[in-house]
Amino acid sequence: MNLLIVESPSKAKTIEKYLGDGWRVIASVGHVRDLVPENGSVDTEHDFAMRWQIMPGKEKQIKQIIAELKRADAVYLASDPDREGEAIAWHILDILKAKRALDGKKVYRVAFHEITKKAVTDAIAHPREIDDDLVDAYLVRRALDYLIGFGISPLLWRRNLGRSAGRVQSVAVKLVVDREREIEAFNPVEYWSLGAVCNASGGQFDANLAYVDGEKIDKMTIENNAHMQEILKKIGDPVIDARVTSIDKKKTTRRAAAPFTTSTLQQEAARKLYFSSRRTMSTAQKLYEQGLITYMRTDATNLSADAVGEIRAYIGKNYGDTFVPKSPNVYVTKSKNAQEAHEAIRPTHFDGDKPKLTGDEAKLYDLIWKRTVACQMTNAEFDSVAADIETHDARAVFHAVGTTRTFDGFMRVYIEDRDDADDNTESKLPPLAVGDEVKIMELKPEQHFTQPPARYTEASLVKKLEELGIGRPSTYATIMSTIVDRKYVEQDKQRRFHPTPGGWVISAYLSKYFNDLVDVNFTAKTEDTLDDVSNGKRDKLDALRAFWGPTSAMIDGARGIKTADIIDAINDIMRPHLFRDGNDKCPKCGGKLGIKLSKYGAFIGCENYPTCDYTQRLDSTPASDTENNAATEKPKATNIDLGDGISFRVGRFGPYVTNGTKNVPAKQYSADTITLDIARDLLENGTKRAEPINLGENPATGKPIFYYPTGRYGAYISSNRVNVSVKEQPSLDAAIDLINNKKPSPRFKRTTRK
After folding, report:
1. 352-365, pLDDT tens digit by residue?
2. Residue-range domains of the chain with CATH
3. How many CB atoms within 10 Å of residue 498?
4. Are the beta carbons of 576 and 184 closer than 8 angstroms?
5. Interatomic CA distance for residues 173 and 165, integer angstroms
């Protein structure tokens, strides 16, 4: 018998059907090992040696793997085909070696980018060794994230500056804050435009003023109403006689967008479906595990020759030969470190009927299907006509443009959305010829103001991070959810990010004392270094030393700075935001107002405290974003179909899972964290078997913090006899913050023995 280990139980079931007798397929359920959550687990003094532990709750998977391995002749490590997947394979192999469970058995690493019988059997027929370079890149990334977390986070906790800082999340927060600064500093500029309603023998059309007395009229030429009135006086009152003086006709084409990468899928799902990045990736994961799409973490835009052949055949059969280009469309991958062996995200099959899906899976699959088919279709074709209309006295020239689609091409199937503009509109002109008489029926002066840059949406922020080379396909969804979960940013009614008071404060602090950490060039360079390690171009230890040298110096320098000095520095940075009118005088005593910090968050207070107790709440709600009228985020579902007749619901007493006959509480889970496998386990084993999870050490007391999934009142964390209720398992830094800042209960006052 052969044993094949994958990451997901759903994937294991699908693959086991393909392989049949002689094979056993089991899941690791993601990562099985991580760094010990305590200071010193990455030893910077001894070549960054790392101390690992099997993750709480994963002993069950390890025992199952070892039990199955005893009956197997060979083991195939088939975790996902990326850096994290390679790391999972390496961890499993290292654990099995340490437990002496291999006993001379053959070990193979296999990777496939789609879960089809052909892809799986081909991968097994061509196994390889574990890629040490990919593993080294993972080790560097994990060490850096750990060192930043344990180096900077305690500085934040002690001074109530924030919950955590991260190598990439901090840059994302800074981008949101910097955009808000631009918006606040923006001064709108007035300008005017002059439109004309024209009438020719063929019909009515619109035009815009282009010249007056030989002067070209650009967007900002007409500065105010007085200037507009001068121009109107020169042109005269309607009806104005005019004629066509020039016609410019040309044919244009538009090419289909490239097939989806991870980032473009997240962007388009946000625009068209209003999905968060996390929701998109969770849904894509389910589609991948069912064998319906290729691997969903990729930055490549190429497609396999077999897939292109299937797509072209499908287009010819369903749309006709005129929609099939003479040669396949080829798209160049923009990411300089993209792995061309990977494919773009596409359906695995184009023959037969589409799979029967519902809900989010149906919507996302349809989006991927249409984008993939469209990318191999012919260009859309347009006729563009531009006409100049001159008034009878030759004092003014109006310009009219019309565009008509003459051949649908790829647009028969799919049109890509844009973030802040709609360039898909088409306008038509009536038949016009040079010399044709035109009547200008109405002049329409219109006042405008320049607009500030738009706030980031999830789609545009992911796009910006990708342009800057920050983050990678596997991290975008995590970045988006982290900065929201940590309450550094919020989304307004138009689904656009704005910084919270906490986001302003931590961005100001990091910009002052950890400038390199939030510098986009430094962070992008670090990402490039990780890619160089994964490609074998740079040594792991060399990369770690190059990063940790300046970072440790920043951390050491920040430790000795007085809190009062930090607050002064943050005030200097934030003053233009806090007091936009320049008035920072206390209305109660006339003292100077400024930012103050407490365990309950940042606020504005008077410098004369405690003599003056004036305080003011920091407002985190931005002005209405008038330039964007996108639909609001849909509310989270309270009844989610997980499959196999099992659903996740939120009832009177909180979340629970049900199979129709049995209900089991699931208070530690949410719509974003519940999975079919978790629900099955809850229904089978109930909540009684859930064991406490050691989250790590509380630096304030030196005691461990435990997470209890179930209790009398639901999930809670506990340390040193302090209990705090939580909705789901928190991160270590969040748990420390909750435990250390819990108010004592008035019913249990501690007395001092005399």
Report:
1. 778 889 899 999 99
2. 2-130 (3.40.50.140), 140-185+455-616 (1.10.460.10), 190-255+380-449 (2.70.20.10), 262-374 (1.10.290.10), 639-685 (no CATH), 693-740 (no CATH)
3. 22
4. yes
5. 10
Angstrom distance (rounded) from CA 183 to CA 174: 14
CA distance 434 to 210: 17
**Positions marked catalytic:** 295
pLDDT over 60 (residue 746)? no
Distance CA 342, CA 195 (A): 51
Sheet holding 23-27, edge to edge: 23-27, 2-6, 74-77, 106-109
Q: How far apart are CA 328 and CA 338, in angstroms?
A: 21
What is the average pLDDT across 612-640? 52
Q: Is the peptide bond before 610 cis (omega within 30 degrees of 0)?
A: yes
Q: How far apart, in whole angstroms, are the C-alpha atoms of residue 67 and residue 108?
A: 18
pLDDT digits (tens, 9 = 90+) for 6-55: 988 888 888 988 998 899 999 888 889 999 888 889 999 999 999 999 98
pLDDT of residue 739: 82
CB contact set of 133 (below 8 Å; sequence gap of 6+) = 533, 534, 535, 536
CB–CB of 83/134 below 8 Å?
yes
Integer Cα distance of 574 and 181 in angstroms: 10
Helix (H), strand (E), coil (C) string for 121-155: HHHHHCCECCCHHHHHHHHHHHHHHHHHHHHHHHH
The DSSP code sequence of 422-437 is ------------TT-E
Q: How far apart are CA 4 and CA 647, in angstroms?
A: 29
Provide the β-strand partners of residue 294.
114
Residue 125 confidence (pLDDT) above 80: yes
pTM of the model: 0.74
Least confident of 26-35, 93-102, 141-150, 643-652: 643-652
